[in-house]
Amino acid sequence: MALNVIEFCIEGHCELAAVELKLLRKRMIVITVYRPPSGNINIFFTQMTELLEHIFDTNKFIMITGDFNIDCSEESSIDTKRLIYLMKSFNFYPSIFTYTREFKNSKSIIDNIFTNIPKGEIECFNLVTSLSDHYAQISILRSISPMPDVTKYLYSRSFLPCQVTNFKIALQQEPWSKLYFENYTNIDYLYGFFQSILEKHFLNSFPLKKRNICISKCPSHINISKQTMEIRKQLKHLYIQSKNLDSSHPLRIQYQITKKDFRKMIRIEKNNVFNQKVSNSKNISKTYWEIINSHRNNSKSSNFIDTLQDNNGGITNKPEEIATLFNDHFINITQDMSVSHKAYYSNKGISDSLFMSPTSEAEVIRIINSLKTSNTAGFDGTSTKLLKACSSEMSKPLTYLINKSISTGKFPKQLKKAIVKPLLKNGNPNDVMNYRPISILSTISKVFEKVIYLRLYAFLEKHLILSTNQYGFKRKTSTIDAMFQLISNIVSDLDRKKNTIALCLDIRKAFDTVNHVCLIRKLQNFGIRGIALDWFESYLTNRY
């Protein structure tokens, strides 16, 4: 976990970075330091003193490592004495006693590791990397182990082709007679019957299996080619031969050229791996963010929440209490927000009313196939990938249910359920205020919604209800069009020597603060009335 040490950094004088690690016995703080040789050394010592006072904790192991540009081999130096005394006053002792930089017969210990870890539990030494005239410092913690990879049990389902085939056969053989022939108008009852049949075949075809999962905290590595490794060996050989030579010596020049080539090849190989991932991706933007997050060590697997701060300020690790804390927070997330619910809308009403025509099996199949393919599933376990594979088998009962929903003006209560997952925005992961909810709805719900959307959108377009200045959520328009219009207006005003002001607003929790009563009134004003309006009221109410 990164530690915030920005307040102690002064560029050009004292530059810092820090992380906090979890160990078996206690936590450990690792701080890296760089003191530019041209910086003010008094400012450096002032900032370091304030930093050490801030982070000092006898219950934590602390390592302070980096390039201090203070030669600890010169014991009589005033700056060396100041550094050693400062560190010892906080119980930190140096761990590097051999030269860390050798160049042209100049030898010094300007890199070091200061720590409060007992000497018997840590070993520190230099490593020749040949990538710099500084050696790397290595620390081995002997009896201190990091938190092991957390092995947990996960119950999951496999969706092998043979299992999907068995599921399709079961659906094909299902008569659905009770669904079609009994004269029920209660959509909740009808969908409940459909769901029970679907669930029976789903559980038989895709049983839950217990698996071990390992939440690894190690970042992924990129394998480099043999050619690059050969250059790496050559580079190390050249470094040893040329480290005491003048910069104009042919061997030293060859070393610098080889070092530049090696770094270039590493960059190229990394770029090739990333470009391959992007070129094979169906969602380029998402893939870019996955690559970025993998380097930030911010993968999805790290979203496991095992502790959370409770209402009394303590930390709980009980899953039931954590779930309750999130539930209470998400329920009340908008109650403290001051939002005006005055019904602002055009006084011009629409005399025509929306008629929601029934759907057909062909349309339902077409809608299912238009959904974005994903393995994500709602409470019923049915993903869009599985739904697409079984679109022909499920189209008839779904068509019947959707038409029944349209004719009765009711949306099935079973489809109002959602799996709510907390997503960390930023800040302290133990603070519930730093999370926002992500709701995962049933995939079948999306089919119902798309059928209604197509009818509503066609009605709004026909009566020119949508503003020409609206670019989001409209066909053939996007935020790119909005940006183009903005730039066009600015350029036009500049040509006419007019002043231009752009006011950019972002509505906080926009969807959470929509007043449903006001929304229903607007829909009624724009021609959504009768059973159609009943359907939208049913869709918006009693969600959980």
TrEMBL record:
<dbReference type="InterPro" id="IPR043502">
    <property type="entry name" value="DNA/RNA_pol_sf"/>
</dbReference>
<dbReference type="GO" id="GO:0071897">
    <property type="term" value="P:DNA biosynthetic process"/>
</dbReference>
<protein>
    <recommendedName>
        <fullName>Reverse transcriptase domain-containing protein</fullName>
    </recommendedName>
</protein>
<dbReference type="InterPro" id="IPR005135">
    <property type="entry name" value="Endo/exonuclease/phosphatase"/>
</dbReference>
<feature type="domain" description="Reverse transcriptase">
    <location>
        <begin position="404"/>
        <end position="544"/>
    </location>
</feature>
<dbReference type="Pfam" id="PF14529">
    <property type="entry name" value="Exo_endo_phos_2"/>
</dbReference>
<dbReference type="InterPro" id="IPR036691">
    <property type="entry name" value="Endo/exonu/phosph_ase_sf"/>
</dbReference>
<dbReference type="InterPro" id="IPR000477">
    <property type="entry name" value="RT_dom"/>
</dbReference>
<dbReference type="Pfam" id="PF00078">
    <property type="entry name" value="RVT_1"/>
</dbReference>
<dbReference type="GO" id="GO:0003824">
    <property type="term" value="F:catalytic activity"/>
</dbReference>
